[in-house]
Amino acid sequence: MPLPSYSFPLSITPPLVVTSADGDLDGLLPYATLARVEATGDIEIPPRVVRGVEAIRLRLVSRLKFFKGEWFLDTRQGIPYFEAVFVKNPDISLVQSIFRQAILSTPGVQSVARMTTTFNKGARSFVVDPLEIVLTAGVVFRAQPDEFIITLTDRAGDLF
Q: What is the 8-class DSSP label of residue 110?
């Protein structure tokens, strides 16, 4: 006599996908930082606190724009742009590994769901697009197109 079989419906809820425009999400992501001026990276005056997805996005931007050797107290910190990224023939797998490690070391990030990188030699820019990151509480952050572009220029704005 065969055993009876039972089937239960799978109740898999799709992950919550958010962008940097979604704000705090009712306190789902307990992270906060000071708002910054996008063009310069300086703290806004008067100071304003941003929370949630925007706070994590600002932390990611800060990490990805932080050059190795830039901080005088610990010159080992930062991304080795001059040593590994903006060289004549960059090793793309090494560069992707460097960026993945920088993203994963950001507070609030659990894993990288999808990341594609493009290096434009003529424009001396490195684009991380698309970028999807799993944040705390299983929230998936999807970066806007062209949100994470790093361009190497001198102080006058000319390309190196």
A: E
Q: How far apart are CA 82 and CA 98, in angstroms?
A: 13
Percent above pLDDT 90 for the chain: 1
Q: What is the Cβ-side half-sphere exposure of residue 14, based on CA atoms within 13 angstroms?
A: 3
Domains and CATH numbers, the chain: 17-151 (3.10.450.40)
Quickly tell me which residue has 């931007």 as its tokens: 61
Contact 106, 59 (CB under 8 A): yes
CA dihedral 24, 28, 29, 32 (to 10 degrees): 50
User: How does strand 109-120 pair with strand 49-51?
Assistant: unpaired
Query: Which amino acid, 79?
Result: I
Each residue of 27-60: pLDDT tens digit?
666 677 888 887 777 888 888 888 877 788 888 8
Return the residue matching tokens 């894993």. Answer: 111
At 60, which amino acid appears?
Answer: L
- Find, among 149, 68, 138, the residue nearest to 101 by Cα: 68
Q: Which residues, listed in sequence order, are joined to residue 112 by a DSSP beta bridge?
A: 133
